[in-house]
Design a protein that fits this description.
single chain, 486 residues, Aldehyde Dehydrogenase, Chain A, domain 1, Aldehyde Dehydrogenase, Chain A, domain 2, six-stranded mixed β-sheet
Length: 486
């Protein structure tokens, strides 16, 4: 590796404004995917810790946070965004060590996004308002837009610190308090941002962080009667389980789940731009991206030439040391994930697809859960590699005949998270975007996000939205007030 890295301090739970050990005293070890070596130990939250954190969150919601002037809450969120930028190098390093993504992505893409979330949503703190509704001369009638209460946020391992921004910033902006459970594989950046939240002036109990297992700490959060809402990003399978579990306490839910997003290239597209978009659409983030353009639909008349050029580009994407600023393809998050992805490549070839680039593990000096950028040619849309989320740097390329065929194949999937359309025909672009069953459609681009633009899925990709003004509905509830004036 290119850098001798200073040790990382052990991770603690953050409960009621303090960094503490778990009640059980249990810890787990987080590993560097690029070296397979331990990074540090982390306190492992259990049900007792969930009880402590929820109690602290409830007390803060009913106490100092709930009584704080909106303008002061706004200042605290803005300051947290500033502190993230001031500590950007440290947080980005933790993210890359923990997740295996290139430091370029952590530092230059993820950090600005996280800070922007806190800055953007801080602006909404003073602008959430109800309405006066003149329904009868006998009454003064109005609505209040109120926070829900204690929000349990369960986030995945692929974008740990970005997910902190996506979930925590709007929840706090709406006046809620938060208990955050980062993924067991990647807890370090979330813990650090939780520490910065205290420095920013968030009262104790407003933002609690509980690293631990989803099956234990996450399950306890979903079952807890004093948690009012769960916001979750993760697999569809787990999302379905959460819906069933949350039903017992009638919790509000927002779920951003899996995807198998189509990236559609028409023959009239700017093909050089489409090649770049197809490459970044699947290989950015090592393909461990819920909205990855993992199905590339290419119009048949340009299919052979396009796939050949795509394979050439993929072969040039050599996995490298994630701490090297020049690296663009890092290590998969774990050995289990790498083996899962390799298993899908084998499945694809058994089904009749052909590997035209990559397809194998690519360790550095015999170490690391690295995998080559992989392109599967000749994929039929009914194959498992076209229907199931692989969550790795594997692209399934599918041919189509015309617009109707492209839309049919694009929508013939259980998921509906995102899609891409590449064409110079503006009319066609808008028509296809309307017909695609997806929460986000990029036209002549892919993988762009902003705190001001809603993101979420349809079908088995979940419901509810992160980001944008629309997501604030997920963290507030309306109350109608009738005042008799006659």
């Amino acid at each position: 590796m290119t850098e001798t890295l200073a040790p990382v301090k052990p991770g603690k739970l953050i409960i009621n404004g303090e960094a503490v050990d778990s009640v059980s005293g249990k810890t787990f070890t987080t590993h560097n995917p690029a070296t397979e070596e331990p990074i540090c130990t982390v306190a492992e939250a259990g049900p007792e810790d969930v009880d402590r954190a929820v109690a602290a969150a409830r007390a803060a919601f009913e106490g100092p946070w709930g009584r704080m002037k909106p303008a002061d809450r706004q200042k605290a969120l803005w300051k947290l965004g500033d502190l993230i930028l001031q500590n950007a190098d440290e947080i980005a390093r933790l993210e890359t060590l923990d997740n295996g993504k290139p430091i370029f992505e952590s530092r230059q893409i993820d950090i600005p996004m996280v800070a922007n979330c806190f800055h953007y949503f801080s602006g909404w703190v003073t602008k959430l308002a109800g309405e006066t509704l003149p329904v009868s001369p006998a009454f003064f009638t109005y609505t209040l837009r109120e926070p829900i209460g204690v929000v349990g946020a369960i986030i995945p391992w692929n974008f740990p610190m970005i997910m902190v921004g996506w979930k925590v910033a709007p929840a706090l902006a709406a006046g809620n308090t938060v208990v955050l459970k980062p993924a067991e594989l990647t807890p370090l950046s979330a813990i650090r941002i939780g520490e910065l939240g205290l420095e920013a002036g968030l009262p104790p109990g407003v933002f609690n962080v509980l690293p631990g297992k989803g099956s234990i700490a996450g399950e306890a959060m979903v079952k807890h009667p004093d948690v009012d809402k769960i916001t979750f990003t993760g697999s569809t399978e787990v999302g379905k389980h959460l819906m069933k579990t949350a039903a017992d306490t009638m919790k509000k839910l927002s779920l951003e789940l899996g995807g198998k997003s189509p990236n559609i290239v028409f023959a009239d597209a700017d093909l050089d731009a489409a090649l770049r978009g197809a490459t970044t659409g699947i290989f950015y983030g090592k393909g461990e991206v819920c909205a990855a353009g993992s199905r590339l639909l290419v119009e048949r008349s340009i299919y052979p030439e396009f796939v050949a050029k795509l394979a050439e580009r993929a072969k040039k994407m050599v996995p490298g040391d994630p701490m090297d600023p020049k690296t663009r393809l890092g290590a998969l998050v774990s050995e289990a994930q790498m083996n899962k992805v390799l298993g899908y490549v084998a499945t694809g070839t058994q089904e009749g697809a052909r590997v035209v680039a990559g397809g194998e593990r690519s360790p550095i000096n015999g170490k690391g859960w690295f995998m080559q950028a992989t392109v599967l040619d000749g994929v039929d849309n009914r194959m498992r590699v076209a229907q199931e989320e692989i969550f790795g740097p594997v692209l399934a390329v599918i041919a189509f005949d015309d617009v109707d065929d492209a839309v049919r194949q694009a929508n013939d999937i259980p998921y509906g998270l995102a899609a891409g359309v590449w064409t110079r025909d503006v009319k066609k672009a808008h028509q296809v975007a309307r017909r695609l069953e997806a929460g986000t459609v990029w036209i002549n681009s892919y993988n762009f996000y902003d705190a001001g633009m809603p993101f979420g899925g349809n079908k088995q990709s979940g419901f509810g939205r992160d980001l944008g003004p629309e997501c604030l509905r997920e963290y507030t509830q309306s109350k109608s007030v009738w005042v008799s004036v006659e």
